[in-house]
Design goal:
Elements: H1 3-30, H2 36-40, H3 43-70
Amino acid sequence: MNWNNWLRRIHRWLSIAFTLAVIINIIAVVQEKSSVWAGLMAPLPLTLLLLTGLYLFALPYANRWRGAGRSGG
């Protein structure tokens, strides 16, 4: 498996982890058992989602840029 496919798989699993963290946080708030750890559970996967998402977003543009340099035009 190449690097891009591996990163896409990580991005998908991070989205599941983020969704679960948000659901747990909502349940904690509704039950008025909100604590610091429940509030801080979502930002970690969200930060990693941001980084992997930005990479995956820029990937086609980077490939085009690299391809333009190789053609020797």
